Amino acid sequence: MAEVFVLLGGNTGDRKEILRKASGHLEKRAGHITCKSSIYETEPWGFTSDTAFLNQAMCLHTLLSPREILTVILQIEKEMGRQRIGKSYASRPIDIDILFYEHLVNNEPDLVIPHPRLHLRKFSLIPLNEIAGSFIHPVLQKTIETLLKECKDTLKVVKYL
Questions:
Q1: Sign (positive/negative) of CA torsion 127, 131, 136, 139?
Q2: What is the number of structural domains in the chain?
Q3: To the nearest 10°, the Cα dihedral for 142, 114, 101, 43?
Q4: pTM given for the model
Q5: Grouped pLDDT means (10 residues each) for the chain, 161 residues
Q6: Helices marked H in the chain — which ranges?
Q7: How far apart are CA 124 and CA 56, in angstroms?
């Protein structure tokens, strides 16, 4: 079983219910969710929006390969109303990012693990720190706790639930 950390987020529709449903889909299709962070309300990163995001980190134990998990995630996002238009950031009902897959480093154009901007974003680091603060980033060789302390992101991240 591989240990995978993912981040769920969204800022349209019933944000809390969408996180709950996405979590259920992951559990059914990808593997067993072993822990979840609190839910955090966060300012949009990389674009402006009147609606804040809800974000939650999760640890998942899976038999799926990284590529298989990506396929499942993209299917879930599409089924839940996510529309990918171009490469720019935009409001969306659900976004599911693979943060880590074990200590794997993968640099394919459509599948980069660890997530390449994880260390720049408090909306990822704060929930991840709650459930895996001592996890060592396989590229940066620092714990999540250290990356959070060093993060220069000033956007607001507040515990929601």
A1: negative
A2: 1
A3: 90
A4: 0.94
A5: 97 94 97 98 84 96 97 94 69 91 96 96 97 98 98 96 77
A6: 15-29, 66-79, 122-132, 144-150
A7: 8
In the three-class reduction of DSSP (H, G, I as helix; E, B as strand; rest coil), residue 24 is classed as helix
- Other beta carbons within 10 Å of 15: 21
Q: Degrees (nearest 5) of the Cα angle 109, 114, 117?
A: 80
Tell me the pLDDT tens digit for each residue of 104-144. 999 999 999 999 999 999 999 999 999 999 999 999 999 99
Q: Which long-range contacts (CB under 8 A, 24 or more apart) does 136-144 make?
A: 136/103, 137/100, 138/100, 138/103, 138/104, 138/105, 138/114, 139/105, 139/114
The residues, any chain, with a CB within 8 Å of residue 21's CB and separated by 6 or more, are: 80
Give the domain extent around 116: 2-159
Q: Do 49 and 88 touch, CB atoms closer than 8 A?
A: no
Q: What CATH number is attached to the domain comprising 95?
A: 3.30.70.560
List the Cα angle 129/132/138 in 5-degree steps: 100
- Tokens 């639930």 locate to 161
